[in-house]
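hiii so my PI (J.) wants the whole complex modelled not just the main chain, which honestly fair. so below is everything: four entries, each one labled with what it is. i double checked the lines twice but i was tired so who knows lol
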Amino acid sequence: MSTSRVEAFSDGVFAVAITLLVLDLRAPLTSGSLIGALADEWPEFAAFLISFTFIGVVWVNHHAIFHRLARVDRPLLFFNLFLLLAIVVIPFVTSLFALYVAHADSQASVAAALFNCALLLMAIGFQLCTLWIDYHPALLKSGRAPRSIAQQLRFATGVFAYVACLPLSFIVNPILVLAIDGAVGAFYIVDQVSGRNAGD
Amino acid sequence: MSTSRVEAFSDGVFAVAITLLVLDLRAPLTSGSLIGALADEWPEFAAFLISFTFIGVVWVNHHAIFHRLARVDRPLLFFNLFLLLAIVVIPFVTSLFALYVAHADSQASVAAALFNCALLLMAIGFQLCTLWIDYHPALLKSGRAPRSIAQQLRFATGVFAYVACLPLSFIVNPILVLAIDGAVGAFYIVDQVSGRNAGD
Amino acid sequence: MSTSRVEAFSDGVFAVAITLLVLDLRAPLTSGSLIGALADEWPEFAAFLISFTFIGVVWVNHHAIFHRLARVDRPLLFFNLFLLLAIVVIPFVTSLFALYVAHADSQASVAAALFNCALLLMAIGFQLCTLWIDYHPALLKSGRAPRSIAQQLRFATGVFAYVACLPLSFIVNPILVLAIDGAVGAFYIVDQVSGRNAGD
Amino acid sequence: MSTSRVEAFSDGVFAVAITLLVLDLRAPLTSGSLIGALADEWPEFAAFLISFTFIGVVWVNHHAIFHRLARVDRPLLFFNLFLLLAIVVIPFVTSLFALYVAHADSQASVAAALFNCALLLMAIGFQLCTLWIDYHPALLKSGRAPRSIAQQLRFATGVFAYVACLPLSFIVNPILVLAIDGAVGAFYIVDQVSGRNAGD
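here's the output for the full assembly
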């Protein structure tokens, strides 16, 4: 099967998920200061920006991974579905985090851990897809080689980071989790999929 | 007419329907235990997972069916629309089921039966599409043959199972319906469309 | 400019609009009969089915029109946007109609007239697109001819019918409007775009 | 990387954003005059039309820009994401504007300024994309040349206009801002991307 339709379906899910995020931004009805009312909604705006960035970065990497393929097989379609499940859940865990981040108690830790779990799920989905491709090089375009162990490990950084974050949310601080998650997101802005100088 | 645009439109409907499911997950506002509040929402989470899986499996099978086609005709476009109608309804019957599954009385049976009806509608839509294709082999790519009677019956399993489920919801138990529906979904994860060794 | 991207964007709008319709179906929370509570929602279900069918038929005809094109120009992109505006409005006028159809007074007439106006807008959008194409045959695929006057008039049936319906909503009955609109929709299920035997 | 997938993803975001706008139109429940109740909602309808037009015009220009490209690189994907962020925000600032436009006080000025900021963000996103392409002509299709300075300045009109509008919202009138923004939108209906006679 060619890659075109799984790309189109995935693009649709990414596009809907990234656009639905705006439904969490509500125009506040106030008779006082509008600027003040919007400022009170800062967790919603921060959550919106973080989730938009995450889904955007994930889309770019999804693009880079499937760009290397000449065809897909049925198991890869289901691994990709698993990855999309994590994407679809991101708006939910984001609004959960936004709702509790200002709380000082353990609820914020739980919300941060759940947000982190969704990112972990997403990272696992990416691992399933890319490892399946590595061990089925017939799916690759001619001239493309499976990744080296070093490349595999580098791309698996997210899995390790998200697992490490889980206890930190309870031991240290939910905001630290957000900071680490943001750093991991920034790490994936740089291309971690193609080898250096591999062209594209 | 080529298959590309009907695939694009169907992919769009699948993508929106599968992503809209997340709108039924609501971040609970509680001053008590967040974990407890989320646990109370288990029917919503279960319904979300079941519907996501169902729509995902349906998409993979839709993909496999249209992948065999070289072109589409106008009646097939309308049979496909009928199938999409069932897909669009799934988020609604899912949230209905989630709302009543915890009730012990006959309402849960009604909700399970309606959920089951949507799946039956979907299975009928698939039958309309695939049987139309079988009797119009000019739509197939060159080298593809219409399905054998055995393949037709095997793919029609869902219709029989969903019809059989309808009375069970009232006689036995709505949860049993869900279990059978889940088993049917798992059955369709395995490729029931292409013949064995038919390549793809 | 090739037709592929305007088709993809239009497919996206059609797919989102047709799937958003389900958001108007709400799982009723009742301690009485669930069947009864759902039966009370019959206007929502009827409106859902009518709008789904309308958008579906419009998509098939949109498909047939753009299938004849080799390229698009900038004015056609804007005429197509006008058509999409009417599509996007359909879920709104549908829920308006569903809300007032059971009222016996003049409000139902107003709601029916507004529903009808959206369909008229859509028909005008189709006319703008198809007439523009007729007078710019360079947009057509080689071997395709502009439509005859007879074909143009036949395809313009909807415009005349929707205009005629507007006063009927107030003079006779809003339900009559719905019946006529339904008949017009059924008329367009049959191919009114390509000439007979024109192949496709 | 070819342009097809970034176009498909962008088309998805445009299609969802333009269709989500209809969710802000609510069927009013009134026992009085339905026409009157709808007339009271005029800011919602005006905002809907303005935002639909803006997103539509932006889509046409996005189409014209990417149509000139033979390939995309990773930075351009992220500049495009930035542009899409502005698109996704438009439904939110639109409903904010609709909520406060009828207020005579400074709140309407704040809402107009925020609406204007989203348009400015969008114009900056367009500048990032087009300037990146100008300085990386290897991305262009063969036979296409980077824009002249005159073309660059002409396309940058929006940035200057939106910046100039910001203080006007507070000094003069929020409605003036809307009028200027509308004029800028109309300016971009005419092709400001391709050079004259450049064909397409």
